[in-house]
């Protein structure tokens, strides 16, 4: 709905952001300056110990220098309480003693209806809680006390109830309170038969209330005590209040506990969450009768950056873990990941805690594995890699998984981890290593004279770096077979030229396309045409000798090495200059000298050098290798 002009501005001026935020954080008084309206605290949106979350009361905005969360009072309430925009406005309006302007009749009717449904649901919860205390609930009380070891206080905390074995107990109670049949059915707690008869949906079941992020009752879950029941657990149906795929059991309490530093645990069911919480693991949630959905995963990440998914150690539990991995892989990014705690076979968290105590559960959580390890295990465990074909098939599958990761930085780290695990699996290094700083790579040949006489050799400074980027990108487009060999170097390459980032992304995305250039042209024709039309690209050896992949390999390795040497030297010089402060000392002078020498050695290879490289490919290989191995631009301990 639209609000009258000026209402939101008036609302923002009447509420004090620090008071709103202060309900969720503890201010760092050593860093804060109350007189200036300057407040600092650990961020409520991600777990941290330092105070990187800043509130500026005068401007009415917050910003986290860690996770980059930002916004105003409305945004803060919306994010921390999982509310819609209008719901957040209503919360703040109540705080400020303001009345939200009347909404249009349709919106008002919808909000009133939701309020009515919530009120009916609260009546349902109270009714079933009372039923647990009656003689009809005796068997359920024994089960909860003897089998689940839940105290009376725990039963109250979790509002656990009992649905009597009756088709009409709840229906009659609600009718006695004036609830219309239409509202009863709309809650999902009362169903309508084909013969238009109303009957209770839950019968002879232990009842677990399901509440939303604001603590409002929105549905129920029920567990049957009958071993022959068709369904042991039953959830309420989808309603105007309840969307299974967008809800979590214990969401509100878990968010509060996670905000106080408790690790967030994602379990499978109600009793697992209750057992974990009663044992001290209070930041626990569970999906509601379905596999974790994308919306639930996003909700989970809003509570904690790296939750632990606790799964049964049987085959079904591992399959569930794989489904979560497949769901999360395109969504993970820096600051949003998952760890997996696999329990002993045949045990769930509730079983383990009852059998061996909280310490055993803590040990399982401490051994939680990062997602990359589960992904690797899925692709390798139980397989043989005794032939080049099988190893190549593994590489292909891993590349396909990596391609699903949208975050380039994270994809690069996953690539490095897969390479490390691969080397451990095969007991050897890959025959062709991509160029990465700090790793050895010797090109198979040497540079041609045309390379040294090109525009690249004549240019200097940032212009030359941009030219090198261009010929590197053009080379891999013309020789796509080199992409996987130099993939890490391409991912880490600092790009400065226009459209270079776009071209790099398309190169890596379409690395396995039958025609890479055509695939890139479909997405960025102007960028590709501009790249190939540049004179220094047209004159480069790989462009003029497209049928010579060996030359392209050498050329690419050389340009990457030179670009890294230039930028390493420039960084060292900049650091040294910054360190000077006053007069340069002998150590700083040495660093500057070595940095300059490194750059010149990477630029020149001619008869005045210690070795006449000329057309001698082996000599150039040794020269490039020496630059990479020694990292001469870095000051050595003397």
Give a structural overview.
The chain is built from 30 helices and 15 strands. It has a five-stranded mixed beta sheet with strand order 12-11-13-14-15, with helices on both faces. Strands 1-2-3-4 form a four-stranded antiparallel beta sheet. The protein is globular.
- Total helical elements: 30
List segments where confidence is low: pLDDT < 50 over at least 5 consecutive residues: 428-460, 580-588, 604-617, 631-638
**What's the overall geometry?**
globular
Query: How big a fraction of the residues is strand?
Result: 5-15%
Strand order of the largest sheet: 12-11-13-14-15
Task: Provide the structure class.
Answer: alpha+beta
Give the terminus-to-terminus CA distance.
71 Å
